[in-house]
């Protein structure tokens, strides 16, 4: 991707992290975020899918303020209301994906919060389970485990994964409509755990976010494979058979040749990705249960014509609401 490292903004440079996607960006000043800068980040995201910015100096308020400049923001109210959780952060636009409990202690293995967070260890696209899926996610580091204890975030390039499929496979999967559920991810991340074998965690007893598997990524004009650990079944196919097909595709897209890890180094590190052309997952580490890993995310609704999938434009339900 060497031909795509220049930027119209003087001093801004892209340093590719992988042969087909992801780049680290230098020369952007987050002390004064302008719309020109946001537009440039979006332009580069259409190419790279994932951008890494080091030591931005952003705090919660400026993180949220900047995120509004990217598009309509999703919020955490359904999760707080539906699951009886407490929001420990200053804004309902901040999704708390770290391992810090509302009382400041470190989330311990085996607690319900930890069981639910295990979802993030599997490749996914944010909010695939909602009627309006996520477009960009902006994840900011606040507190990190000491080096050597793991906790990177790994990304997968689903446009290149699609490109590499055989023509017959492309034809076979072309019209598949996938039903996505947060509960599919939660259950499969905790196989056999009786705590999640209740109706409350049964995907079939809740709504699905329906999205096409193969679709045009409008920002780049390339084709994307929209698969996720939330994917549960395919319209018109027996549930078990659909799930088998989806798990095969998820494994395929997550092969090492399509993936790129991003190490978090310092508080203020920011990673922005496009959920409509990449997947991501959290990498396990020895920090778990011992060291704080405090990462906070804002989530921009997909602003493309594919945002609502087959869920009806303007649907107001969101996963997590009672
Ligand atoms: C997220 C997410 C992964 C991580 O913020 O949406 O999945 O590494 N994060 O914490
Ligand atoms: Mn995520």
Automatic annotation (TrEMBL):
Keyword tags: Dioxygenase, Iron, Metal-binding, Oxidoreductase
Superkingdom to which the source organism belongs: Eukaryota
Family: Belongs to the TfdA dioxygenase family.
PANTHER family cross-referenced by the UniProt entry: (3R)-3-[(CARBOXYMETHYL)AMINO]FATTY ACID OXYGENASE_DECARBOXYLASE, DIOXYGENASE RV0097-RELATED
Protein name, per record: 2,4-dichlorophenoxyacetate alpha-ketoglutarate dioxygenase
Protein's UniProt keywords contain Metal-binding: yes
A GO term for molecular function: metal ion binding
TauD/TfdA-like domain: residues covered: 14-299
TM annotation in the entry: none
Species: Papiliotrema laurentii
UniProt KW Iron keyword: yes
